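Notes continue from the previous slide.

Worked example: a multi-chain complex. Inputs as given:
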Amino acid sequence: MMTPDSEAALAEAVAGAKGPLRIQGGGTRPIGQAEGEVLSTTGLSGIELYEPGALTLVAKAGTPVAVIEAALAKENQRLPFEPMDHRALLGSKGEPTIGGVVATNASGPRRIQAGACRDSLIGVRYVDGQGTVIKNGGRVMKNVTGYDLVKLMAGSHGTLGVMSEVGFKVLPGIEATATLVLNGLDVTRAVEAMSMALGSPFEISAAAHFPETGQTTLRLEGFEASVTYRMTQLRALLDGFGDMEELHGDASRDLWAATRDVTHFAGTDGDLWRISVKPSDAPDVVKQLPDGAKLSLDWGGGLIWAVVPEGADIRAALGGIAGHATCLRGSAPTFHPEPAALAMISNGLRAQFDPRGILNTGLMG
Amino acid sequence: MEMPAPDVKIMAMKAKLVERLQSVLPFEAVIHDEVQTRAYECDALTAYKCPPLCAVLPASTEEVAAVLKICFEEGVPVVPRGSGTSLAGGALPTADCVILGVAKLNDVLETNYDDRYIRVQSGRTNLSVTGAVEENDFFYAPDPSSQLACAIAGNIAMNSGGAHCLKYGVTTNNLLGVTMVQMDGTIVEIGGAHLDSGGYDLLGLTCGSEGQMGVVTEATLRILRKPEGARPVLMGFDDNEVAGACVADIIKAGVLPVAIEFMDRPVIRATEAFAGAGYPDCEALLIVEVEGSPGEIDEQLGKIMEIARRHNPVELRESTSAEESAKIWLGRKSAFGAMGQINDYMCLDGTIPVSELPYVLKRIGELSKQYGLDVGNVFHAGDGNMHPLILFDANKEGDLELCEAMGADILRLCVEVGGCLTGEHGVGIEKRDLMFDQFAPEDMEAQMKVKDVFDPKWLLNPAKVFPLSVTETRRAG
């Protein structure tokens, strides 16, 4: 295992590599298979710049997420996209790094309101497959100078370059949070309720549904008085959906931390899938899943987590439904196969960024 | 501004090219008469003009594909054009190019309120996207100043922003999917009504690529429910630095306004003379707008005004009605027109870290004296996106060049303090030759390698974004 302690050393390690490299941050997100010597970014750690008044933070890629969240909390700020911690779900150990968050574009329940990790990411520095240090974007939140390689790096799972530094737009902290829980809805009615809430002016920051418990959860965040006002309005709007209750403060926060980390599927057996569709397709997806599937809905129905019997061909089952399915655990290819024309572009990009094919070889095709 | 010399071989085959284009498009959709092609000789960067070889106006994705395939086979450069409102020369033709205009592609294809998206053809104007959904109280968030005229195609090409992006983000944050035609005529679907990509974020990569990776013909856009209401507060300060500090304090306090707009004294005076919005005569003026229910607005404006009072404003005026709100916004919205009344102007678009605001404004003032050209500043203060307006006289020999030199100095200053050349207008030809100031050669090489993948022959809008010297061998094919 190589653990370079500077960007220059990282570049040297990549340039001098004789074979495939397995790029790793904290190693808490073992998604897909890549062979090779481990190249760890944990030696690149520390916040390089934090300007609370400008809502911007830049950190080395190996910085623990916890360090960043603590620094932000001190100024009553936060990462907007509520990054998921994969440890409980995937049974992994270690310390999640901010580079790993970016490489997997890890985004939590607030994605539907505040965008994904890629939407908050404003700058990257990375080492490409030949050991060249490249920068793109920067430390300002509005920047259209040249191509947006920042977005490309987010979610590229270390296959296009090894990130050494990442910059974010951050947001003010949240004074109050509350959750409206609707009880006893089936998936179809739950998606209807979530769509109605998300189409209201009451700024729902998260919407999830759990078929096992029959609970549909809708989150409100903001200043105390505003949350109280919107809760009243939301209850009136959803009056026709039956039984409801409210969660406030820590009870609300704990619920969403668990939703974010999908802890309800921790320790399960079977294949694990993450499916992205448009919310109104969710009931169809649920119908197509094999018997014995356990599932939950986030993003108003647009994100479906499913634990299914081993070997079930989920992509075939979803046939005509637009979207994508990622296999986090199981024998199916991890990433959704792309149509031929897009696969050609993706392969072309990989060949340009990593001509020797040594960065997480084979992970994304 | 230098442009590549037109390819004489291409110029010589105009008749053949027109004939081939006419074989796949209706007769009137191929514009080749030398008088008519002049309608496409420039965009909103009017200092530079060059009529194209011809212009085409396809009316479907398939027609766009047919046109591109022909141009690909003939080796003819293509410059895509939305509504031609680019301030950066993004749609400036060369004499040997085909202008591909998307103006006929302006239908709404689908609206879906349950899933909160709209699918439109890309020639549709920004404002008419909101127009298509506002009767149901929805809107499309990105709001560039040119929104009455500018096309979604151009918004995607330049990743356009607007006054309200502090809360809602820019185009790339509100774009869900595109139908795009590649230079060889291949039609690709990227993204869709679902969120995020199963593979690489090709949507994020193509958004803002200035028409160099493909021609977008259809777009799926996120729409949002309108807030219950919105109301601004106007505050005047006798010092730019104090106004800058007030912006930082508002942001730190946890209030996230939808817009924080900043105007300096020259712009305040010009807009007062032009629009009479009743602005105080002071050094710096902020317009801060918040959204929500009446109660929520009161609470947020209360917090904001409390912060403002700590900075001793010379004026603090909370809007209490729609009329007062309109009046507060009137000056800001007519700022560009007001400056245009005084003289010709060049509008810059650099972004800086908000903390550098006082220093950058001071340096711009010094540059103004040094060059002998007046400057007004009006910009989105919340995100540091500056819009210095340099006044010059287009009819005076050498004034444009002087203005460009001063503009380049201001943009270099933006980069120097940690910012960038362009926050929302794009590079086009205007900032092309300054790219070396922001990027190392290898940074630019990494970007050009992406174009190599999408457009290996470098035929799509080839003379933009990157300095001509670094693209020369690629453009030669």
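Summary box: The CA atoms of residues 87 and 220 of chain B lie 25 Å apart. Chain B touches chain A through 94 residues (CB under 8 Å).
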